[in-house]
Amino acid sequence: MRFLLAGGGTGGHVNPLLALAELLRSEGHEVIALGTEEGLEQRLVPERGFDLVTIPRLPLPRRLSPSVLTFPLRLLAASFKVRSLIRARNVDAVVGFGGYASAPAYLGAWFAKVPLVIHEANAIAGFANRLGARFTKHRAIAFPNSNLAGGTLTGMPIRKELVEGALSYDSGQARVELGLDPLLPTLLVTGGSQGAKSINEAVIAALPDFNNAGIQVLHIVGEKAGLEELNTAGYLRLAYCDRMDAAIAASDLAISRAGASTVSEFAAAGLPAVFVPYPVGNGEQRHNATSVIDAGGAELCEDSVFNAEYIAERVIPILSHKATLKKMSDAARSTGIHDAAERLRDMLYSAVDTGSDD
To answer: Are the C-beta atoms of residues 204 and 228 closer than 8 Å to each other?
Structure first.
């Protein structure tokens, strides 16, 4: 069969799309990805060997402006373009992951009368998936506390090579491969694909405290952070890490934003974390972390109070107590869903079997 997978912009949309795409390809199906020219999909999708078709980026207007009046027409035009693509390429079904490309894909699938599946990565659904939910009963959610009505919990499709690689690694060997001390407790710090200025600044300010406590830091600052890479005793700073399986395996605890992919990957790998939700938006990151926090596998700190003092008072004591880390790791792993891509694939097959949603 031939499937159109729509989504993009951030890793939270692109990563699950690619996870499902690779599973479908392994089972002999053809996958076409739909995205925009500005998002991460522009680079990541072709790198994985998939055909990427782009449409104009259509952000939902947030304030009164001329774009509010033209948005419906632009959305309709993009949707008819997707309908034409579906018909020309004989697409059997559409799967959307949210983001700028998804709303036209949902309308295009409805116009073309082909089955539609939507996957909501965040606990708080975005505009595109709230719209898509009107056109299909096949709604997958990544977190049990999702506000998307009628959703079925499938979990977040994650990169199998990342989680399986992290679980199969010896932590000491992973540290050696990354240039870290194999014996020291290790903290992983990452702000996601865009980096996080507040996290970066607080961790750098706390480096003397980490050094005094005998804790080493693997700090992934983000390519846009404007910070030079650095490798000194007890501190490795990278702009980007292409070995996240080794980074997770090497680490005892993480400090991170709470993007859907990050929360799901850490949980599946059993890596406890202190999540510092992104303070802008509709608060979805705080809700993304709810399940693992409630289970005891992570803690939450608001961005406004995350600083070097918090690190000294809360993070370092956790890293210095092996029993606490073990308990948190087990709790995080208990919330992880390893077969999310397979669950979403099964929903897709069911949608194809039952036909399009009227």
So the answer is: no
Which residues does 110 contact at the CB level (< 8 Å), separation at least 6?
116, 135
Mapping DSSP to helix (H, G, I), strand (E, B) and coil, where does residue 119 land?
A: strand
Q: Which domains does the chain have, with CATH numbers?
A: 2-156+338-354 (3.40.50.2000), 160-335 (3.40.50.2000)
Tokens standing for 210? 């980490």
pLDDT tens per residue, range 301-319: 999 999 999 999 999 999 9
End-to-end CA distance of the chain: 21
* pLDDT tens readout for residues 159-214: 888 888 888 889 999 999 999 999 999 999 998 666 688 999 999 999 999 999 99
User: What DSSP string runs through 138-187?
Assistant: -EEESSTT--STT-EE------HHHHHHHHHS-HHHHHHHHT--TTS-EE
> Two tokens at 188?
């992983």
What letter would DSSP give residue 60?
Answer: P
